[in-house]
Amino acid sequence: MNGDGDVIVDALRELADAEYQERVWAGHSLTEMSSFDECVERLFDDSGLAIAMAKGPVYGDGPDGLLRELDTLVGSVRADGRVEEFLRDPVLVRCRSLAARILEMLTDPGTADS
Which of 39, 46, 55, 90 has its CA 20 to 30 A from that of 26? Predict the structure, then answer.
């Protein structure tokens, strides 16, 4: 993989964690800063994942397919408007679920190609 695996795993953890999003993305933390857009940017761009996936397989069929699905889905998330509504948006909820599945596949070698 040509991307930064730690950045990818950290971004997936953030994207899968509703409590973190409520605390940090909603601005309830005085010491932590992040946003949906920053998380997605870290996951696909800063890590080099988008470029690596364009060149060929990265993690295997299972995770790569879900990462492609997630990449498409995050483009449908409407991050404008009230943060409380955004955090409950069904598309974001689906993104959380996908991120959690991908994270499990990447951190549990027994599920990498399932």
Answer: 46
Supply φ then ψ for residue 8, to 5 degrees: -65, -50
Q: How many domains does the chain have?
A: 1
Give per-residue pLDDT as tens, 58-111. 999 999 999 999 999 999 998 887 888 999 999 999 999 999 999 999 998 676
Residue 47 vs residues 2, 9, 28, 91, 92: alpha-carbon distances, Å? 9, 10, 27, 23, 21
Domain range for 39 is 5-111
